[in-house]
Every structure is written in structure tokens, then in C-alpha cells.
Amino acid sequence: MAKGHRSKIKRERNAVKDTRPSAKLSYARVPVQKACFVLDAIRGKNVDEALGILMYSPRYASSVIKKLVESAVANAENNNNLDPSYLYIAECYASDGPIMKRIKPRAQGRAYRIEKRMSHITVILDER
Q1: With the C-alpha atoms ordered 42, 44, 47, 49, is the resulting torsion angle positive or negative?
Q2: pTM as predicted
Q3: Which fold has domain 21-127?
Q4: Where are the beta strands (DSSP E) in the chain?
Q5: How far apart are CA 101 and CA 119, in angstroms?
Q6: Lowest-pLDDT range, 4-13, 68-77, 82-91, 105-114?
């Protein structure tokens, strides 16, 4: 059990900032499961290698994630003054976003629900 008051513990935990360059896309119209197929393929790879994989991947999520990786590289260059040739994808993950619910009419007056899922995708780079 941690010592101290809850607010003090939270304050100490939030004081430590992650300075690694990153990019986040909220409300991407890609289900988490489909985004994770692409994210698993690029995790731990160099940025150039990851962009090559994303460019030739046939999945829709790869085009969305490619833009996100390029944005993270631009953040690393402009904000942290890092050289893009030494960067690799340290972390990348997708978490659930809201679900758009739609109705599909079916036979005999019934209605089936269609769930169009969204995700929040995060890419964090680091230097080797």
C-alpha cells in the first residue's frame, strides 16, 4: 500500500512527464481489432521500415496509421530536435472509442443493430 494521501500520490505520479515524441488520433473510423493487425506489424521497427510496411499494406487502417507515424516523426523533428533516421516505434496501441449505432431493417418488421466502431490510436517514438 502506498504511503501518503491520494492527492499527493496522484500529484507525484503526474509530475513525471513522458518526453518521447508521439501522435494520437482520436475517433478513427477503424475498429480496434483491425487497427491492431497493422500496429502489431510495425511495433518495434525503425520509422523508415514501418512506413514501408504501411505503404504496401492492403488494409484501410494502414493508410490512417501511416499519416499518424508521419505526424509523430514531424513532432520529433520540430519539438524535440531529433534525427528521424535514429527513431523507432517504441509503443503503438489502439483503445476503444465510441460506437455509432445504426438500424438495418429486416423481414417482418424486425430491425437489426449495426455497430460502427471507432478507436483512439496512439504512436510513441523513441531514439536508438
Answers
A1: negative
A2: 0.83
A3: Ribosomal Protein L22; Chain A (3.90.470)
A4: 22-28, 87-105, 111-127
A5: 15
A6: 4-13
